[in-house]
Amino acid sequence: MKGFAMLGIGKVGWIEKDAPACGPLDALVKPLAVSPCTSDIHTVWEGAIGDRHDMILGHEAVGEVVEVGSLVKDFKPGDKVIVPAITPDWGALESQAGYSMHSGGMLAGWKFSNFKDGVFGELFHVNEADANLALLPDGLDMAAAVMLSDMVPTGFHGVELADVQFGDDVCVIGIGPVGLMAVAGAALRGASHLFAVGSRPNCAALAREYGATDIINYREGDIVQQILDKTHGKGVDKVVIAGGTAEDTFVQAITMLKPGGRIGNVNYLGSGDYVRIPRVEWGCGMGHKIIAGGLMPGGRRRMEKLASLMSTGRLDPGKMLTHRFQGFEHMEEALMLMKDKPRDLIKPVVII
């Protein structure tokens, strides 16, 4: 089969590989709509998870089931399915402890384009199909539903990690696709003042549509000071980090956070060896300013619940799709958009 792959650090291209085999609990799926992710950029051009050779990229897809294993009960060939970016091993001890995304080791629930070939191939393999696939509800735009694979659950998980409550003042740092979904999730969870940090006009406009009350433009001054000015020097109750760097962003987040507040980080820190934590602003280690960082949960139940938000009109992630391509041959073009990030980009999708 043909696939678009990481050939090595800094190198991508089309390759031919043997089609994957289907185990008794598994499924083989052909992609119908896929989207590249900034994580793919970190993986290829920063070598964030180490060198990979001839590994098919991609972890965001809606597809059609082609084959199922003999023990699969709930899916059959021809079913249209949402495929989560994280496909855990549900019998692992880590899953039983409540951390399925780390089943088999830290981050090991993230298999596509990490430990095995991803979804940018003519076929891809899904482990434990009954637990890791979800039927695409009738009437949902499959291009918009691709956002349920990663962007929506990652942004929402940042909100969960920050434990946003009714009436909280919340700041979301970074309003790319994940940050925009964090804004939407914080609004659904009852945030009051909801500050969105970003500079691109289209992202800022969409952040307001998703519930942001204020846009904090880092090009117009220090974001911490802007937050303090808008909160009368008090800061915010919760921060979601969906962009920025390990060197600067955590300093800003901790400084703008009230004592007793929480930071939820879902930003993929693709470079650097350490995260900077400011000693004094962290209360000399005793400020009860909690930092939680996590990989999104995956699996069928999560996909079904998020799809329900789309079906009922509570959430429209399709608003983020700024570039639509028709045909598998546009895969590289879409990926390079995520690398180069033109001003009009939020998220591309490739319809296959």
TrEMBL record:
Gene3D superfamilies (alphabetical): Medium-chain alcohol dehydrogenases, catalytic domain, NAD(P)-binding Rossmann-like Domain
Domain Enoyl reductase (ER): 8-337
UniProt cross-references to CDD domains, sorted A to Z: NADP_ADH
Cofactors that this protein relies on: Zn(2+)
Record keywords: Metal-binding, Oxidoreductase, Zinc
Top-level taxon: Bacteria
Gene Ontology MF, one: oxidoreductase activity
Entries under SUPFAM superfamilies matching the protein: GroES-like, NAD(P)-binding Rossmann-fold domains
Cross-referenced Pfam families: ADH_N (PF08240), ADH_zinc_N (PF00107)
Family from the record: Belongs to the zinc-containing alcohol dehydrogenase family.
UniProt-recorded name of the protein: NAD(P)-dependent alcohol dehydrogenase
